[in-house]
Amino acid sequence: MSKITTATIRQMKTEGRPITMLTAYDYSMAKLVDEAGIDMILVGDSLANTMLGYDSTLPVTMDEMVHHVKAVCRGTEQAMVVADLPFMSYQVSKKEALRNAGRFLKGSTASAVKLEGGREIAETVRAIVNAGIPVVGHLGLTPQSVHQLGGYKVQGKDESAAKKLLADARCLEEAGAFCVVLECVPTPLAKLVTESLGIPTIGIGAGPHCDGQVLVIHDMLGLYPRQSPKFVKKYVNLHESIAASLKQYKEEVTARTFPAPEHCFNMSEEVLKKLY
Ligand code: KIV
User: Fold this and answer.
1) What is the pLDDT of residues 221-260, one digit of tens each?
2) Closest residue (by CA) to atom 2 of ligand 1?
3) Continuous H helices in the chain
4) How far apart are CA 209 and CA 76, in angstroms?
5) Best substitution site from 214, 215, 218 to test ligand 1's pocket, by max atoms within 8 Å of Cβ?
6) pLDDT confidence of residue 207
7) What is the pLDDT of residue 8?
8) 210 in Cβ contact with 243 (< 8 Å)
9) Is residue 219 within 6 Å of ligand 1 at its C-beta?
10) What is the C-alpha to C-alpha distance for residues 195 and 49, in angstroms, rounded to an integer?
11) How far is the CA of 240 from the centre of ligand 1 (A)?
């Protein structure tokens, strides 16, 4: 299979083929995701939570993002890698946004960037696209604006918020974004946005009518000990399996049953005798 490009993603919407996207933040996980045939890997700023232990996405820096994007790219052959522009890397000026978007592509094989927001960032999206860098939009619950939104809650529930979200989505398409993530949006509104746009929508907590789906990999693999949001399906509970393996390792080392002979290296008796 050949490398997934923006053309592939657009074509998938045209043909009604669902687009799959997952986050990954390191080489080994990216390799697994890529080998599973997932179309897009998002190096999300959610790595602030999953990898760095912060309680929001706000603290993660461009340098930290670049470090993880490079690792993910080394583990990816086919999937399209999308790098998330972190909080305050694109809001201050178009010039800074361009420089930061460019850093992702220059230092790795990432082929697109993601930004949060609608009309207010449309001109920034246009400038990045004009520089030849594909852009993924992100509407609905935009975690970088958690303080303005008053918490992590479903967005676009009343008429004016729903109309604004629809207008923002059209604005992003018009500015040149090639797809848009819809996070925590009522299913009927996500369906309307999906039908209204020529570009694909990728939903997370936005129901089944989006053109694709994305999940945070730590949530779907049950790597997080905390309660997951309602929209997450836990496909496996890796936290439990890993915790059980670590406990067993401690017990075996304590009981001297690990390492067993099959984990050890031997040497000739003759050499050994000389040492004694
Ligand atoms: O950072 C992230 O993981 C994201 C997804 C939730 C879409 O933006």
Assistant:
1) 999 877 889 999 999 999 999 999 999 999 999 999 999 9
2) 44
3) 6-14, 27-35, 47-50, 62-74, 94-106, 122-130, 146-149, 159-175, 187-196, 217-220, 238-254, 269-275
4) 28
5) 214
6) 98
7) 98
8) no
9) no
10) 33
11) 24
Q: Whose CA is nearest to atom 3 of ligand 1?
A: 44
Which amino acid, one-letter code, is at 23? T
* Cis status, amide bond into 225, omega within 30 of 0: no
Catalytic residues: 183
Residues of the chain with pLDDT under 70: none
What is d(CA 105, CA 96) in angstroms, rounded to the nearest whole number?
15
pLDDT score of 89: 98
Report whether 50 contacts 224 (CB < 8 A). yes
**Each residue's pLDDT tens digit, 28-68:** 999 999 999 999 999 999 999 999 999 999 999 999 999 99
- Best residue among 113, 216, 231 to mutate for probing ligand 1's pocket (most ligand atoms within 8 Å of CB) is 216
Q: What is the largest CA-CA distance in the chain?
A: 87
The pLDDT value recorded for residue 54 is 96
How high is the pLDDT of residue 75?
Answer: 98
Tokens 């935009």, residue located: 142
| Alpha carbon 164 to its chain's center | 25
Whether the Cβ atoms of residue 77 and residue 97 lie closer than 8 Å to each other = no
- If you measure from the C-alpha of residue 249 to the centroid of ligand 1, how many angstroms do you get, rounded to a whole number? 34
